[in-house]
Amino acid sequence: MASPSAPHPLSWKLTEQIVADWNWTKLKQQFDACRWNEDNAKKLVTHIRRYAGIVSPHSSESARGKKQKFLESLRDLLHSSAHKILAQELTSLIAEIKMIETGYSRILDALEDMKRENHADESILCELMQETVRGGEKMLLAMNAKNAEVGEFRATTRYTALDGQTVEVDRANSINMIIATMTAKMFGIANGWFGPDGLLTLPKTYRQRTGCPNHVRKIGALGLAWHNLEHTEKRLRFLGGRLKFYGSINLPENAPSDFRTAIEYLPANDEIELYDKIANLRLKEKANQNLLEMLTQVRHNFGGCNKTTKLAPAEFLSNEEMHGYFHLTESLAFDISEDPKKYGGLRLIEWLRGYATLQQFVHDKFKRNRPRSVLIELPQEDYIRLLVSVGLCEKSAKAFIAAMCFTKHSDDFFDNPLIRVEGGNLLLFGQALRNANLPAVLLSMLNKRQIQIRRKGTAFETEVRKLLENQDGIELGSYKGKQKASDGSQEEFELDVVAIWEGKIFLFECKNESLSDGSPSAIAYFESGMRSNVTQTLRLVRGITSYPDILNTAFNGRFTECELRAMPIIPCVIYNKSYARIGAVDGVFVFDFSSLGRFFEDRHINLNVVVRRGKKTVGVPIPVYDFWQDETPTAAALIAQLERPIQVKVQREQMKWLVKVLPITDGNYIYTPEHEYHEPSDEQWAVAFGADPLDFASRLMAVKRQLNAYKSGNRAARRSKNSVK
After folding, report:
1. How many CB atoms lie within 10 A of CB 681?
2. Are 140 and 177 in contact (CB under 8 A)?
3. Rounded distance, CA 665 to CA 219, Å?
4. Euclidean distance between CA atoms 505 and 569, whole angstroms
5. CA–CA separation, 225 and 662 (whole Å)
6. How many CB atoms are located within 10 Å of the residue 610 CB?
């Protein structure tokens, strides 16, 4: 075996080409060239684990056999090369892949059995798409009715139904869209609708009616089962953990009455998904709040698809595009209209215009009580002409349309709402875009393509510096340069933002990165990036500890070396998005800019309690949390927030760890644990923030008494006025 010194890097691009054909001879040649050290062995197993083709729902027995032989050969070589733990991991993975593939086979077998009812699959898919329209309309009307009932327009999309159950509209719409997406995938695999280029192509007969809604619902249930299995598979491959099998011998606890088999996903580290979910939830709530504020404060005449010719912000095509522009500019910490860089072939402002155009086009075509009105089939050239007419060049328009087409690897119709139809036309599944949050959809699409918007630049750093510059008692410094090590080599260091406040050194490493939107692969890459950012910050801590000249230069000699050495260092990775964690990661705090700004902005967090005021409802602020515990902010109070961000703490306390039992086919189940958010009452919110429940109740009663007095005064005034008349 070659010496482990100076290994060549392992090429994932070459590895992917090799595993696509499961060519063991070529892989061993590459790996021998890279040297069999621990780092390369780990990278190889991770690459193979995350390779999309490692799970093959519809492969032949011979193809699966070739893959099996490849993996077993690798396992044996790892074992004989002293990589026994990795060999064990691969052994488990081989068994787990078999479980997953068995689940897919059962769904496809059930699908084949249903074909005996002689309904065309493309017609079933079309009716499922229409059903998402009916379901979405029903929920939207119910939510609007509830809002009208209480006299308010809320940023939330939750409402309480007549049966007392809380309905999360976004979640319900997502499930409906998932059913349509996975049914398309399922049918595509079963019928060979996916071409060599991976694109889904529907037969022309998709508009024929089945006249059998019960059959359509059964197919939809299989589509949902496919999604649940696929999501479990991706969690396993990207986030680690293991699968446990249950059968007639080892029944799970509380097994359903028709139980035959089950697989249970056991996460390796559930906190990775927990913090990701909290971050995405906070970002979504902020986006909803921004939209609410814009709708209530901004009045703007939009050009729509017929008049708009210039890209934002010169012209806005719709309300949604304007919201998307301002939200993306705020969350990315740079003006997206001034960014010339192309991400996946288009500028961000072009991506936004493309999505906004398709969305507005659907709004223009939609007719209430006509679900087929959001299934719009046109020649590809018509879509390109439409995009060119609203400001995109022809090249960008073609690139956008190509990116929107649904493929074998598409996660959902939100990101890819266009489907090719036999003959060359494109079918726009408009329901996916009708009520879509455009910035969320855009960022989700880029994430799933593994396109990270990482602008090192100075935009975000400047925002952080401006915030700190405006605070009393904080001194800011900066540094970029090289230091000579004891062995004569030179090390380069760059401090994004360093501040001295009340005898403490705050070191902020600023990161402007996109969140995952819940995708297991994106969660894994974000977690890996976060760990890398922590490592980078620790290097900077070592630098300013080892080379006193760094801080002397950063603060222009305003502090002596002795003073600087006596100051504790508070290292922090700060994200522009809403990602933060409770407790330090390897000694480094992970915080977000929104929480940092909120800390300095106001001493208190207020809970806006909605109460009736005549025929209207008003939000009355009641303080429930004190950031400072003093008249002014202090360094100690900030450190307490870095250690335990209150915004993350309260969201975490509303998360419940639930094991869901999800059917695959008759008698076969998936047991999958997930963090689920539960909307608390006002009183529960107050307690979560640490407010005394009795004090909060008395404050709330005082508010209601004031409002009652106000109403009584108004009635008395009206009576007096009438008596005068």
Report:
1. 8
2. no
3. 11
4. 5
5. 7
6. 14
Enter the pTM of the model.
Answer: 0.85
Question: What pLDDT is recorded for position 437?
Answer: 84
Using an 8 Å Cβ cutoff, are 639 and 651 in contact? no
Q: What are phi and psi of 17, to 5 degrees?
A: -65, -40
Report d(CA 541, CA 569) in Å as an integer: 8
Cα–Cα distances (Å) from 680 to 273, 656, 690, in that order, read 21, 12, 14
Q: Which residue has the tokens 């529907």?
A: 202
Relative to beta strand 604-613, strand 201-202 is: unpaired
Name every residue whose Cβ is closer than 8 Å to that of residue 205 and which is 6 or more positions away in sequence: 120, 122, 123
Q: Which tens digit of pLDDT belongs to each residue from 663-681?
A: 999 999 999 999 988 878 7
- Taking the C-alpha atoms of residue 346 and residue 635, their distance in angstroms, rounded to an integer, is 43
For 519, the token pair is 């995708």
For 348, the token pair is 């961000």
Q: pLDDT tens across 430-469, in order?
A: 999 988 888 888 888 887 787 777 665 577 899 999 999 9
Contact 338, 328 (CB under 8 A): no
- Asked if 480 and 493 count as a contact pair (C-beta separation under 8 A), the reply is yes
> Hey, what are 173's tokens?
């719409």
The pLDDT value recorded for residue 724 is 41
> In this structure, what token pair is assigned to residue 315?
């012209």
- Please report which helix (H) or strand (E) contains residue 673, including its range: strand 668-677
Pairing between strand 616-626 and 604-613?
antiparallel
Q: Return all residues near 275 (Cβ < 8 A) that are at least 6 apart.
A: 579, 580, 581, 648
C-alpha 463: how far from its chain's center? Answer: 24
Nearest-angstrom CA–CA distance, 363 and 155: 21
SS (H, E, C) 541-609: HHHHHHCCHHHHHHCCCCCCHHHHHHCCEEEEEEECCCCCCCCCECCEEEEEHHHHHHHHHCCEEEEEE
Under the phi-then-psi rule, with left for phi > 0, alpha for psi from -120 to 50, and beta for the rest, what region is 22? left
Two tokens at 532? 């890398």
DSSP letter, residue 241: -
Reported residue count of the chain is 725
Residue 77 to residue 323: CA distance in whole angstroms: 55
CB neighbours of 515 closer than 8 A, spacing ≥ 6? 276, 279, 280, 283, 443, 447, 522, 526, 577, 578, 579
Separation CA 460–CA 510 (nearest Å): 7
For residues 72 and 473, give the distance between their C-alpha atoms in angstroms, rounded to a whole number.
Answer: 63
* Contact call for residues 67 and 94 (beta carbons, < 8 A): no
Neighbour count for residue 249 (Cβ, 10 Å): 5
Q: Residue 44: name the closest of 93, 106, 2, 5 by CA.
A: 93
Q: How far apart are CA 60 and CA 191, in angstroms?
A: 15
Taking each helix axis as running N to C, give the angle between helix 319-332 and helix 270-297, from 0 to 180 degrees, rounded to the nearest 10. 130
